[in-house]
Specification:
Helicase, Ruva Protein, domain 3, Tetrahydropterin Synthase, Chain A, GTP Cyclohydrolase I, Chain A, domain 1, 3 domains, 23% strand
């Protein structure tokens, strides 16, 4: 019996197995859908579908930096045992390398998921746990892309920096971001409504004081707040009496990401 593309798609949708595996199973079953499903189950390939509803709160983040291109990918799994497994590590490393070749600049999670669907299904079948390609970003820059992985890839940082920035500074910068979790690069990036809300809170705490004193205190509180949330103002990781804008005045951070496995799930 001739195996059509529609038949292959139907079997793939039912089992989550790869396209070539579906075509082979249908050929072996002479086009019988139920028999083809049985063939996939016997080979273990259809196991991936059964695992698709299981929780994925472990995993690893990996990066790939090459020729002015940087990619960062987060893949989740069920257990820490798999997250630290060499086979899983090799898979996500290759995934990040392929991610850096995708067209575009920014969030590429949807594109990468589409391209890697079959590989991910095959990996689920091989490893025996549910997996999720959760986040992926790819940058192209005229500056320098640098990355850092902490705790075996539980935390991943990637930065895009222009200007004077040697490798030692870039390494310190990534470690600083991993440790201090900045929300913005500099005060100018903080949305006006967020700043105003913070000012309202500060003013409420000063109720009853003279207006000119209140404004001075509020401005002081806002500057202190900037030093907590802005990368450029935070006490520097290697010298808490300094900050990034003083340590590297000729370097400009264009963007950064700091991901932690499973955060906000």
């Amino acid at each position: 019996m001739a195996i059509t593309a529609a038949m292959v798609k139907e079997l793939r949708d039912k089992t989550g197995a790869g396209m070539m595996d579906c075509k082979k199973a249908l050929s072996q079953a002479d086009g019988n859908m139920e028999k083809a499903i049985d063939e996939l189950r016997k080979s273990g390939i259809a196991k991936a579908e059964k695992k698709s509803g299981r929780a994925t709160k472990e995993g690893r983040i990996i990066t790939s930096i090459k020729d002015g291109k940087g990619a960062i990918v987060e893949v989740l799994c069920e257990t820490d045992f798999v997250a630290t497994n060499d086979k899983f590590g090799s898979f996500i490393k290759e995934l990040a390398e392929r991610a850096s070749g995708i067209e575009g600049d920014g969030d590429i999670a949807d594109s990468l998921n589409e391209l890697e669907k079959e590989n991910l299904v095959n990996m689920i079948s091989t490893i025996g746990e549910n997996m999720q390609l959760r986040r992926a970003a790819k940058w192209e820059t005229a500056g320098k892309v640098f990355s850092y992985l902490h705790m075996g890839g539980r935390i991943g940082v990637m930065v895009d920096v222009e200007g004077e920035a040697d490798e030692a500074f870039l390494s310190d910068l990534c470690m600083h971001i991993a440790a201090f979790k900045p929300q913005f690069i500099c005060p100018a990036q903080v949305p006006a409504d967020v700043v105003e809300k913070e000012k309202e809170i500060a003013r409420a705490q000063m109720a009853g004081k003279p207006e000119n004193i209140i404004e001075n205190i509020v401005n002081g509180k806002i500057n202190k707040w900037y030093s907590e949330i802005c990368l450029s103002r935070q006490p520097w990781i290697k010298d808490d009496k300094s900050c990034m804008e003083k340590v590297a005045p000729k370097a400009t951070v264009k963007r950064f990401v700091r991901w932690e496995v499973g955060e906000d799930i």
